[in-house]
Amino acid sequence: MIYLIVFFTSLVLTLFFTPALIDFITRIKVVDLPGERRVNKSAIPRMGGLIIYVVVLILVISFYGNLNSVRFFILASGLIALLGIVDDMVGVKWNHKFIIQFLMSFFLIYFLAGNFDVVNFFGIELVFPLNYLLMILLIVGVINSINMLDGLDGLVSGFSLLVLFVTFLVGYNTGNSLLLILSASLMGALIGFLKFNAFPAKIFLGDTGSYTLGFFLITASLLAGISSKTRTLDLTFAVILLSVPILDTVKVMLMRLLNKRNPFLPDRSHIHHILLEKIPSHKITVFIIESIALLFAALSIYYLFGNKSSALIVYLFFAVPVLFMPYLLKVVKEPFYPEFLKVMRNRFPQIFINFYLRFIIPLISILTVAMLIGLAPVQTNTGDAIIILSILFVILMFVYSLINYQKNKYFNDILVFFNLMLFLFYSNYSHKVYSLFNISGYMEINPKTVLIIMLLPSVLFFVFFREKMLRGKSLLFAGIDLVILVFIMLLSVSSSLLPETPFANANLILFHSFLLYIFYKVFVILKGKYRMPVFYLSFVIPIVVLIRLLVV
């Protein structure tokens, strides 16, 4: 329960205070201007990672009891955050950055040193001082590799979310409370921040965000790689988990050295730059990189809890293509899109599309409402405290949506996903309306199965033919939607690899919530006049259901 409180507190604080931070940073003119290495076309405020750092630090201090044991962790995090702030505001030379980062790494290693006696790297037990030298190199390298990866809207935030979910699951299996609090608070902050950082971004992480996130990611990965039974720190786990930025940095450094350039000066040779040139879609580029990160995340879990030798063989099999990606992509001339699909879409009879718009969408919408009524929880074993916290969370999000709508004149669709997820969570662990009819033989088919059968084909039909339905382009999948999709995929994979997981059924809940959420977006795109009522109805329903569960 405490980790749910940490997660939702972090999420709410980030959602509420990020708009104020955007206004403040814009006023003091700490912004990223368009340039040769920039993908943004207008001035965007940076230093957004400050809100993540402050929220996470507050929650770690508030919820972790033994503050004396984490004083060097707090000191190291403050040092790296200060470096990021100064770099965002006035700039810091690359050699001065390294001096501060090396100093910070000493504090972090001193903090970690009491938890292990042996350092292992790819099956080799490292002796002193090689063990600490490699740790320093890894810590500084990861922080800078995360900074280098931060080149597209939402890329580092989404990647970090995947990494932290893995470290949270590892912490759950090992009982490491600091790792659980750190991971939970960071996940909540990142999901809240992605609301503003996913494409098209309203704020960037900046060096403050990339440095502190790099620090938190390597800290969480090293904590997760420590075995309390053998007191061994396995650096291999962190390398596999963080392979996307590490491999990208190694590749870039080697290319710069081979071309006789300074390896520490920036250019456009990173994986996101290369992919964006071949796939001129910001969202798809981020989705591809995070899908690669998903592969390594799943592999890191298999390494830690499965067969280490097999995991290393598979790792090398996938790491080599990532290293040589620039050369592999040279053979890609244009996106692959079968010609017969274009022909089929263009020649598809308009009468069927009109029938879909006029009859199918309204009918499926009515049936979806009926299925959700059937899934409404009528009795639950969940404690009153959690129900009350859930009610407060929905109310806070409702207030936030009202404030944000009045200020920006824009609907926060992602909040609908959270409402649906909360509703289905209680439905999954409670007695439902449709179960009351099982005695008489009605509704023997689970409504969730019916929802998939109805919604999935209708959503796919819209995706394929939306250009014929709509005169202009319409955004269906936002950047954060694709991040959530990758997150659901990781949850599904990890639930089968981990010996114990607190999310045994969460992947199904997330999948159904996401499918309902995407259908909601399809509906409001096609039936725009109903957008506002449906949006606010998504808040009213869970509040009513939760209050009823509380008084039953």
The SSE string, one letter per element, is HEEHHHEEHHHHEEHHHHHHHHEHHEHHHH
Number of domains: 2
Strand numbers in spatial order across the main sheet: 4-3-6-5
**Based on helices, strands and strand pairing, what is the structural class?**
mainly alpha
- Rounded radius of gyration (Å): 24 Å
Total number of helices: 22
Strand composition percent: under 5%
Question: Main beta sheet: strand number and arrangement?
Answer: 4 strands, mixed
By DSSP, the count of extended strands is 8
Helix content: over 70%
Identify the overall geometry.
Answer: globular
Structure, described:
By secondary structure, this protein is mainly alpha-helical. It has 2 domains: about 1-330, no CATH class; about 340-550, no CATH class. The protein is built from 22 helices and 8 strands. The chain has helices spanning about 1-25, 50-65, 70-90, 95-110, 130-150, 155-175, 175-195, 205-225, 235-240, 245-260, 270-280, 280-305, 310-325, 325-330, 340-345, 350-375, 385-410, 415-430, 445-470, 480-495, 505-525, 530-550; strands at about 30, 45, 120, 125, 225, 230-235, 375-380, 430. The strands form 3 sheets. A 4-stranded mixed beta sheet has the order 4-3-6-5. The longest helix is centred in the N-terminal third of the chain and has 26 residues, at about 1-25. It is globular and about 70 Å long. The chain starts with a helix and ends with a helix.
Which characteristics define this entry?
globular; two-stranded antiparallel sheet; 552 residues; four-stranded mixed β-sheet; single chain
